[in-house]
Design goal:
The chain is mostly helical. The chain contains 17 helices and two strands.
């Protein structure tokens, strides 16, 4: 009798212990991590800092003095508009389950942040933190496109194109890559937005520049950047903010985030020196604007690879970014005669696609869990082609619709007088 009691007591204790382990395991999957949460909240602020004021000042310094307010206005207005539209469907179409179409587009499930408890978790962080972290990516992506069409486009057209573009191009691609879509299933590697952000923005910007047409001064009478110092300040803000952009994409405060920050810095520094060296050789003088343009090229190119490569690979990516992106900046304007005013396609489009391809070869299994190989490279090529195709077709249709509805270009006189005073009634400088 005593043996039977011991037997049943043992069974009970084992069952209880096993149940406790299961409960702990389940709890671990849904437990808030305050360290991760604090880091992603910080990263969110850093990414917004990239746009406001970083990107605004970078573009503001690159244009002529009569269009500086216009460039600043484009960036901040897009930031505000995308923030509201992210609530009104952008987030839901990117990250909600799309049902039968869930491999291509999300659904209305999270429209207006509905069906989400205020303290719901996304991994180890609150979903509201994940929402606003992803919002900052949706803000900066169409803002990057501003550089392709400055000094000649209607402000109303900027807003309308950007609004439609968020739903036609950005949200589907985000769902494909980060929302459990078909490219994610294929195994595409895009740690922080080489496809989602830079390829979509760069390719779409080129389409807009072609359809909008060149500035009247292009190519021989275009004014140089009116304030290289402002360009440098904006670029440095972008550089600092990029630590949140790439490091935050680990969605945790861990070694992966630290490595992403490290390789981001190495690639940016290497690309800066490479671009400067090429211009020094070509022009006989090292230029500040060229150096910091190389910085942004390096940052854009390392973005998709930042969670998958080591510092040695980051150095290689930086060398390629500084040289190949420089080459395309010359090719687009001088050979193809396309007025991509501030080199958005050459820096972001080419950089994003180049980095996405290079991670296919350079990915380290010990860092990101995937080893570089020809098979992975073919997957990366598929991702680049698919995203570029949607960006081209989607943007072309959007621009044609907006052109038919409200037109695209300001008048010749407005462009000559400057958009600061003719569109916004303000001047950047009173001298």
């Amino acid at each position: 009798m005593f043996k039977k009691l011991l037997y049943f007591a043992g069974i009970f204790l084992i069952s209880a212990f096993a149940g406790s382990l299961e409960t702990l395991a389940e709890g671990h999957e849904a437990v808030l991590d305050t360290g991760d949460t604090a880091w992603i909240m910080t990263a969110t602020a850093l990414v917004l800092f990239m746009t406001l004021p970083g990107l605004a000042l970078f573009y503001g310094g690159l244009v002529s003095s009569k269009n500086v307010v216009s460039a600043l206005m484009h960036v901040i207005a897009i930031a505000c508009l995308m923030s509201v539209l992210w609530l009104f469907g952008g987030y839901s179409f990117s990250f909600a389950d799309g049902g039968d179409l869930n491999k291509y587009i999300g659904s209305f499930e999270k429209f207006l942040f509905n069906n989400i408890e205020w303290n719901a978790l996304s991994g180890t962080i609150p979903e509201n933190v994940f929402f606003i972290f992803q919002l900052t990516f949706a803000v900066i992506t169409p803002a990057l496109m501003v550089g392709a069409y400055v000094e000649r486009i209607k402000f109303s057209s900027v807003l309308l194109i950007s609004a439609i573009w968020l739903f036609v191009v950005y949200a589907p691609v985000t769902h494909w890559v980060w929302g459990g879509g078909w490219l994610a299933d294929l195994g595409v590697l895009d740690f922080a937005g080489g496809l989602v952000v830079h390829t979509t923005a760069g390719v779409s910007a080129l389409v807009i520049a072609i359809l909008l047409g060149n500035r009247s001064e292009f190519p021989n009478r275009v004014q140089p950047p009116h304030n290289p110092g402002l360009v440098m300040v904006g670029a440095c803000m972008l550089w600092v903010g990029w630590f949140g952009f790439n490091g935050g994409s680990a969605l945790a405060a861990n070694a992966n985030a630290g490595m992403a920050m490290l390789v981001t810095h190495i690639a940016a520094a290497t690309a800066s020196l490479t671009w400067m060296a090429i211009e020094w050789y070509k022009n006989g003088k090292p230029g500040l604007v060229g150096l910091v343009t190389g910085t942004i090229a390096g940052l854009a190119t390392i973005t998709p690879a930042s969670g998958f490569v080591d510092p040695k690979s980051a150095f290689i990516i930086g060398l390629l970014a500084g040289s190949i992106c420089w080459y395309f900046s010359v090719l687009i304007k001088q050979t193809f005669n396309i007025d991509d005013s501030l080199d958005v396609f050459a820096v972001h489009g080419v950089g994003g696609m180049l980095g996405t391809l290079m991670v296919g070869f350079l990915a380290s299994e010990s860092i990101g869990g995937t080893a570089g190989s020809w098979e992975q490279a073919k997957v990366q090529i598929t991702g680049v082609l698919a995203v570029a195709a949607l960006s081209i077709v989607g943007t072309y249709i959007i621009v044609k619709i907006v052109q038919a509805l409200i037109g695209l270009r300001v008048s010749g006189k407005e462009a000559q007088d400057g958009l600061d005073i003719t569109t916004h009634g303000e001047r950047g400088y009173h001298l």
